[in-house]
Amino acid sequence: MANVVHRWKRGMAWSCSHARYCDREAFEAMLKFKQHWKPQYVACLGDFTDMTAFMVSSRGASSEHEPVEPDIDTGLMHLAEMQPTDVLLGNHEDRIYRIRNDSNSSAIMAYAAHKAVEHIESACKKMKARIHPYDGVFQLVKVEQSDIGLSHGTIFNEMAARDMAEMYCNGTTIRKVIFGHTHKVSIQSARTLSGSTGYNVGCMTKRNALEYAKTRRATLAWTQAFCWFEYCNTLGLSSIHVTSRSPGEQWRLPI
Fold it and tell me: Hey, what domains does the chain have and what are their CATH numbers?
């Protein structure tokens, strides 16, 4: 009987770079790692733009005047540099989709949102990146035939990694879920028989960059990070690692 060769592939994922609020030093460290790691699968987990001007709370506020063009252009520049195979839209990108589709939106806002959506989808198509809409708790993208599931994330509490694992890994072939959303690095085990695990990969954002988050104590827990992993389709297994740094620390990368 012939020996079965199980091929392991490489992957990467990051979340929440927030376009012009991104920490460029952190992003370049991740980009450098990607160039050495040479992953076959690269996923952006959403919030690569901020869409500040499209926030509901921006109506009539100073943030309504936040420029849209540099926000979208910078976010798409980051995607072009990383060349993801998959782009998951986050709740920030979802703002423009909701405004575009909302019959109560003003004609000007709906048109601006439509052009923003068009710009993002055209760029992803040019990069040949699969784009996955943000549909809240239903957003789950499986990494080929591995045991890894990806999501931008919807839960925002101190046990988000555990709760995400319990939500998506219970009774499925997915045993590990990677997400962002909360900007905090966390690895937590689920309370399930399958022994599932949630991996929160933090963010690529400067901690003091987002004006609307500056009064929240939780912002102090934001951590810059990204994850890299190996996975085997024939075995349905994987090995996941999160590389992070705290404010003021140097990046120590396994390259």
Answer: 8-49+80-90+128-245 (3.60.21.10)
